[in-house]
User: What shape does this take?
Amino acid sequence: MGPVEEAARAEVASMGKEAEASTLGASAIDLARRQDKATLPQQAAQVAKELRETLRRLADLWPPAPAKDGLDELRSRREERGA
Assistant: This one.
């Protein structure tokens, strides 16, 4: 697995199971794999453009969950204690 495919898989996974199971999610992974294997600059650019658009559309449909920080963790602990 190349670096673009690895990053695309992580990005799609951050959008949840529905995004991963969707046709768009599968297409994003396929496009990323093709970009990793592209040998001509023009070919790589065309695939990258399609990958960007596919990932943008996926993010519109299934926005990635926001990253949690230390304050979120403290808030969760407080809520669990019932405070």
